[in-house]
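Thread: "does anyone have the structure for this chain?"

Original post by V.I.:
We have the sequence but no experimental structure in hand. Need at least a predicted one for the grant figures.
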Amino acid sequence: MLYTQRSYGGSCVAPHHLAASAGRDILKQGGNAVEAMVAAAAAIAVVYPHMNALGGDGFWLIHEPGQVPVAIDACGPAAALANGDFYAGDTHIPERGPKAALTMAGTIGGWQEALKVASGWGEALPLSTLLADAIRHADQGVAVSQSQETLTAKHLERLLQSPGFSEALLINGQVPREGERLHQPRLAATLTRLATAGLDDFYRGELATGMAKELATLGSPLRLDDFHAYRAQRVTPLQVSLQDATLYNLPAPTQGVASLMILAIYERIKAAEPNGFDHLHGLIEATKRAFLLRDRYVTDPNRVPVPLQGLLNEERISAEAAQINSAQALPWPFNPAPGDTIWMGTVDSEGRSVSFIQSIYWEFGSGVVLPESGVLWQNRGISFSLNPDDLRGLAPGRKPFHTLNPALATFNDGRTMVYGTMGGEGQPQTQAAVFSRYALHGMPLQQAITAPRWLLGRTWGESSTNLKLEDRFDDALVTALATAGHDVEVLPEAFSDTMGHAGGIVRHPDGLIESAHDPRSNGGAASV
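Reply from O.Q.:
Generated one for you, C-alpha cells below.
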C-alpha cells in the first residue's frame, strides 16, 4: 500500500524516481519550483527517452501564491518548408523517420521562458547545477526501465528505419533489457554545452547550427531559420470555476479545454460516492461531450473558430450536462490519436507551484536521433492533415494539435493542487478521475491516484476505441457499465500502463505539502 507523502519543505513528483530526486535536490539547495522542474525535466529526458526528449514540446503552468497562474506554450510550429510540395506523393505524413520530424522542438524554449518567470524570486542557481543530474545520468549511464524495454521491442521494426535510433537507444544492436545500463554520451555533451553556453544555444548558437544541418541532411524539412525564429510564449490559461475551486489549464493547441469541461460537467451530475457506476458513467459521458467539442474547435491558436473560454461558461456547461443520460451511454465511434508524454509537478517552500508536461508525441517520437547532438526528435507534426483547408491542416508555421495539458487548481480554502498524467487521450480522463476522487469525493491523494482507472478511446498506438477498465473494478460495476451501453474491455493488468502515469501535489495554507505518484510507473514523490 502506498500512502500520501507529507512534508513542509517542498516536493517533486515525476514518473521516474531519478527525475523526482533531481528536482528534490534542487529544492534542498534553495532552488525554487521552476528551477527544480528544469532539473527534473532535463533528467527525465535522459532516463525516460521513450516518453520525452530535448527534441520535443512542453507546456507549463506556474503559480505564485496570490497571483494568477502563468501559462507557457512551448510548442514548436511546422517548418517553413513543411507544405504540400514537400510531401508530394504522400497520402499522409509518415509516422516515423525524418519526414515525421517536421515541427520545431519547443521544450528547451519553455525552460528558458519559465526561468524568466522565476527570475524575480531570488538568486538563481546556475544552469550547470540544474542540469548536473541529467548530464551525469547521460554520461555514466542509467538503468533501463521495464517500459522502455517493452516499447522498444514493440516498435523495433519501424524504429530501426529511423536514422540514429539503433546507435543511440539499442545496446550492442539489441533491445535494451530492464536494468541494463544505457549510456548516452552525445546527449551528455549536448547538455553540457547547454549548461555552459546557455539554453539559447539550442536555437541560436552552435548547437542550433549543427542540429539544423543534421536534420536537413537526414531529410527533415526543418532548417536553421526555423531554429532562429522559435521562442516559447506566455499565454493566458483557460479557467473554470467549480463550487470550491478554480481550475486552470492550457489553451489551444492543447486539449486543456476538454480537461476543464469534463470536471465542470461532472460537478453538475456528481455521484454520491466515488468509484461506483454513477461516478464512472458520469465522467465517461462528460468526456464524450468534451471531446466532441474539442475536435470541433481546437487547432492552431490562430485558427480556433470560437473563443475556447466561451465553451466553459455556465450556460454552455449546463447545456452539455443536460444532454447526459444518467443510465445510458452515448454511442461512441470516435477515433482519437495516441500519444506519449510525461507529467511532473513541483512545489517549493514558499508555496510556488509548477504543473509541467513534456512530450515527443508517439513513443520515441520520430525515432530520429541526431548523430552529433544525440537529440531524439518528436513526431508531433504527424497530427496535421495534408489538406491545408482542414481544421488541423498542414501549413508552414502552424502549431499541431496537442494532447498535452498540465492542470492546476486553487481552492477557496487556500489549497493549491498541481496534477496531471501522460497518456494521450487518457490525460483529461485521468485528470478527471484523480481530481474528482480527491477534491469532490474526499479520497486521500495517493488513493485517488492508485485506485483503478479507465480509458475511453485509444492510446499507446492501439486502434480500439472502446472503454478499457483495469481488472480491479468490481464485476457488478463492469456488468452495469456494459448494460448501460458501454463497449467494455477489462484489461488483464491490475495496474496498466495504458492508464497513464499520474501524479499530484497539494499545498495547504499552513505549508503542509501532500505528494503522490503513480504505482503504474517508475515514479517517485521526493520531498524535502
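V.I.: this helps a lot. The first helix runs from residue 17 to 28.
O.Q.: and Residues 235-339+404-527 form a domain with the Glutamine Phosphoribosylpyrophosphate, subunit 1, domain 1 fold (CATH 3.60.20.40).
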